[in-house]
Amino acid sequence: MITRHLFQLSDTGTFTDTGGPVYGQIKQIRWNPDAGDTGCDLQLTMLPRTGDTGDGWIFYSKANVLGANFFDTNDTGLLRAVAAGDRIQVRAINQAGVATALRGRLYVYVERNG
């Protein structure tokens, strides 16, 4: 079974959002912008502890990626994370000196076997 997790991004600086528990392997991410921003970096972090403190690691990071529609799959080697009740934190980071609007939807697809 594949589940889809939606993160609605909207900010002019650094945007951070943490989703609910995820179970399975991250298979694909898709970005669909309302307004393109060529100066944003994207980071996905796996958070295994409640309260976003302590343990956690970045499992996906790309620079200047949010300007247009894109998708990335497990085939690229960038998405190898497996979650067991962990939460995904999404960060969109405007590069230094850039304060353009960022609006769009990031979809994270997770495959759960069993």
List keywords for this structure.
mainly beta, 0% helix, seven-stranded antiparallel sheet, globular
What can you tell me about this protein's structure?
This protein has 114 residues and is mostly beta strands. It is built from no helices and seven strands. The mean pLDDT is 81.
Percent in strands: over 45%
Q: Treating each run of at least 4 consecutive H or I residues as one helix, how many helices?
A: 0
| pLDDT < 50 runs, ≥5 residues | none
Number of strands: 7
What is the ordering of alpha helices and beta strands? EEEEEEE
**Class derived from helix and strand content:** mainly beta
Overall residue-averaged pLDDT value: 81
User: The biggest beta sheet, please?
Assistant: 7 strands, antiparallel
The global form is globular
Give a nutshell description of this structure.
The protein is mostly beta strands and 114 residues long.
Task: Compile the SSE list and pairings.
Layout lengths: L1 E10 L3 E21 L4 E8 L9 E6 L7 E4 L8 E13 L7 E10 L3
Antiparallel strand pairs: 1-7, 2-5, 2-6, 2-7, 3-4, 3-6
